[in-house]
Amino acid sequence: MRARARDSGVVIGRLEPGPLNAITDIPGVLVGQTTVIAGDGPLVPGHGPARTGVTAIRPHPGNLFRDKVAGAAFVLNGFGKTIGLPQVAELGTIETPILLTNTLNVGLCADALVGYMLSEDPGIGVTAGTVNPVVGECNDGYLNDIRGRHVRAEHVLAALRGAESGPVQEGAVGAGTGMSCFGWKGGVGTASRRVKAHTVGVLVVTNFGRPHELTIDGVHVGRELTPPGAPGPSNGAEPPRATEAPAGSIMIVVGTDAPVDSRQLGRLCRRAAFGLANTGSTIGHGSGDFIIAFTSGTREPAGDGEFIDRTLLRDDGRTMAGLFTAAVEATEEAIIDSLFTAETVTGRDGHRREALPVDEVLRLMDGVGRVGRAPRRGR
Questions:
Q1: Residue 304: how many CB atoms within 10 A of its CB?
Q2: Which terminus of the chain has fewer Cβ atoms in its 10 Å neighbourhood, N or C?
Q3: Tens digits of per-residue pLDDT, 318-340?
Q4: Exactly one of 8, 180, 262, 287 is catalytic; which is it?
């Protein structure tokens, strides 16, 4: 198992992480993942090889349809295929677990999620309204037979029913199995930050970036490291060609237990975009960059009545300002962790994504005093 960035001496930001440095530091949040790996060799469209999966995030362990959480979404660049975000934007609530998978599996995963919710709540569509599944994606077609849509209902159900608290597996797992990041092997990453009595946690699926753009804790390591098969570093003499790699995509899920509403969660979503930018992303034309946020600290339970009495954080208070910083830092670290933890994967047609050479990264960062140091102050 490869070490995470912080365990390797790379300390991103100034706030303290939670005990697990994961989205599951938020009380009640559960994560489940199913990895689908089958076959080798040449691509046979629709049949394999498969290098894909699904990741499920449950904001709390109860019935989300009956006990909805405040939610929000922000589309940084809309070159992607998500389900459920218009209703989240309209009503400000999330009423199902959040699923992440590959692009062409969004529909099948949404169908499986609806089936799961119907089995959990016999009142949906009968004595209550219909249900709004939330599913996001990235394109893993470089390594995976994406036309095969190999994530089936049983894989989704296994992720949902197996979701748990505790450490979250990162790298080439679940929805991150076939993903690439900055020309290296990407995947699932997670991190958290504490702000007074509250926690902000982030989980990402990374599938974006050109090799020369990779920046870790302010160090432009991509200018010195080149994945096999990619054009060599320009060393600043000439701008690298825009065609070196596709812009790719990222799914960012931001969770918290702070008492905030949907509008305030939207503000957290937009701050998470700065964490993405800190890693070197320029959010290109073909990039699908979606940020979904929820809080387990603000619920909308089923029931009658005209009013909801809530206590919310002030927008201009110190705690809200800390949550903004936390969203930036946790997003940045989660992305870097997806690279540090991912193992090399060989997929269809012999396509290969190498694991980030962490020893080389640490050597470059140590040369400028960025390894094993105190956290940098401010932004």
A1: 4
A2: N
A3: 999 999 999 999 999 999 999 99
A4: 287
